[in-house]
Amino acid sequence: MTDPTDYARGDYQIALLTGQARWSGSDLAGAARKWSGRYRTSRINLLDRLQCAGFAAEIRDYLNANRRIMRVLYVDGVAVSATS
Question: With contact defined as beta carbons under 8 Å apart, do 75 and 1 qualify?
Fold first, then answer.
């Protein structure tokens, strides 16, 4: 199987897969925050592409110590999106 980043389109999707961006989009700032709907669509498209390529990709929600929900992307059982 190939590397999951081969299925990423653009810097944002690569950042999601390398742990530099949060799956929830909570780290979007400035002009990017205004386009959060487009970023959400981008995340969904990435997840779909990974699953169609045969990766076991899923989103899991966790309640952290501050009682906030964390959304984490897992690819083949390994957490790849930023969690803090």
Answer: no
Q: Which residue has the tokens 């999707």?
A: 13
Q: What is the residue type of 21?
A: A
Spatial CA neighbour of 46 closest among 25, 68, 30, 29: 25
Domain positions in the chain are 4-79
The tens digit of pLDDT for each residue in 5-56 reads 999 999 999 999 998 999 888 899 999 999 999 999 999 999 999 999 999 9
pTM of the model: 0.85
Contact status, residue 75 vs residue 55, Cβ threshold 8 Å: yes
Give φ, ψ of 11 to 5 degrees: -65, -35
Alpha carbons 1 and 72: distance in angstroms, whole number: 22
